[in-house]
Amino acid sequence: MTLALIAASFMGLLLALRHGRPSLILLSMAILLFHALPLALLDPDAMSATLQAQIGTATAIAGLSSLAWYAGYWLFSRSSAASAPLEGGVSAGPKLFHALVLLTLLGLITAAPGGLFGFAQAGFLRLPVDSFLFSLTYACACLAAFTTALRCAHAASGRSALPWLSMALVLLVFWLLGGRTQFAITGITFGLILLAHRRLGLSDLVLPAIVAAILLTLTLSFRLTLQGEATDLSGSVRLTLSQLSLLESYALAARLVEEAGYQAGHYWQVLQQLFPRALFPEKPLQLSRALRLMEARDGLGGLTPGLAGEAFVAGGFIGVVAIGIAFGGALALLDNAYRALGRLQPLMQALVASLIPLLAIFTLRGGFDTTIFRLVILVLAASIGSLWHAAHAPRLPKVLS
Description:
This protein is mainly α.
């Protein structure tokens, strides 16, 4: 099965590069890095006790989920994307609202205990996740990322100046929050918009990608140093590579099912994660936290279950296949829309470009348990923007017969 996964991921990657399908690129890379290579390089002596006990189930989850993702993608990849053509040129975008969001974000960071430096230290230590101020700041940062993507789409469509300062500010905030994945998917969102409008080429993104990879590795080193576990750059690289595998997460999910049974109401509990614990102390513990505590580790961060591990906890192997097919189909529809991105309204451009890395990286690796907050903010912002656009769209004069 390992060789089949490696072959399928390389074939998917080649097809995606040839046909310009970013979701398929990210999906194939995820299967290769999170499933295939960890299975190929599996060292029994380095496996945890949980992985040793659940290796069969973890391998089955990895294989079934990969197959389901590709099957769902293939089923929906032939669907055509409905596009709303641009009419009457491109406006300057919601400049005032975007500026208000950025100012609010800066105000929340300034209001954090210790100001900017206190905010950065707390973010790297991952301590403020239960505070209302952190939840509000994170929500504002997610909204700022979307409004910046929208401004970027407006600028790219109208061939005007790009909002480089806004893009840099949003990326800086996510880096200060200690969210390496959040930083990466936000940067990819901006890159997808610029690539679709040919404002940048693939070669132009190589250097920023290398710089971002180095920065994210140094971020892990800095975080470990603040937590009293100092490590050098090479140690951070090894730790980063070891964290790519999702087999440990799947093994923990299987162990949780073995000890507590299936949790059919898991996705209802996921929706409850939208409420800050400061306002809703009784809300269920995140699955990622439960897995970390079950493994007798500290509870500051989490061990992400992955989309497939989360589906296994909710519905076993049937859940893995069902959720996997739906997930692959969603990625295919997003790729269909991306291929016609230039013909979409800027609001839809920003939504499509934001959803692709959010689902293909963040949700695939963390599950909805981890990504629901940003996903809901993104959908709500796009819905409100769509209603505003419909209310302010120019009306055609009635023709008297």
